[in-house]
Write a structure and sequence with these properties.
Blueprint lengths: L7 H9 L3 H7 L2 H7 L2 H10 L1 H4 L4 H13 L13 H13 L8 H27 L2 H29 L4 H5 L3
Helix pairs in contact: 4-6, 7-9, 8-9
């Protein structure tokens, strides 16, 4: 019996309840760019405990709602030839790798950049715990920088794969 491996990428998609309609809307560059607000907003929401006490749960909940709603918040893009749209397509290609295999080097980079972003969570959380802007900014730099680099690698993945599967080529407008 083959063992099932943990797939953080698939888990994220499942938690976000992404369907084809949500993915199509998330290809809007406004969705991708505004997605980068999540971590800074969460930083402010958590820091607000200093001023709001337990009422800080409200801004934290609002950021979590924004995180879920963001891929659905914008309309279909007028064009999908943008860097942001292609990055979104690359994420879908990565998630579909069990059905349509991708080159190993793309998977290696995706996992490595996910680890870099994840490691950034350590100083970020610690900084939020002790209210240290240096740790917070260091963690945010790793997390956001890792995510932006990840999106850039997903553009590359999509460009490498768009001609290998008919469905992928149809995503371009």
């Amino acid at each position: 019996m083959a063992s099932r491996r943990f797939d953080l990428f698939a888990l994220s998609e499942k938690m976000m309840r992404m369907d084809d309609a949500a993915w199509a809307r998330h290809a809007n560059p406004w969705s991708v760019v505004s997605r980068m607000t999540v971590l800074p907003l969460m930083t402010l929401a958590v820091w607000s405990r200093v001023w709001l006490g337990w009422a800080a749960v409200l801004p934290i909940a609002l950021v979590l709602v924004w995180t879920w709603w963001n891929p659905r918040a914008f309309g279909l893009p007028a064009s999908t030839g943008t860097w942001a749209s292609r990055g979104t397509f690359g994420e879908r290609v990565l998630l579909n790798r069990a059905q349509v295999p991708i080159p190993r080097h793309h998977l290696g980079w995706a996992k490595g950049l996910a680890w870099a972003s994840g490691i950034g969570a350590i100083p970020w959380v610690y900084g939020l715990w002790i209210l240290d802007p240096g740790f917070i900014l260091g963690g945010l730099t790793l997390m956001v920088g890792g995510k932006l680099w990840f999106v850039d690698r997903m553009v590359w993945l999509y460009q490498d794969m768009q001609d290998r599967h008919p469905e992928y080529a149809r995503w371009l407008l």
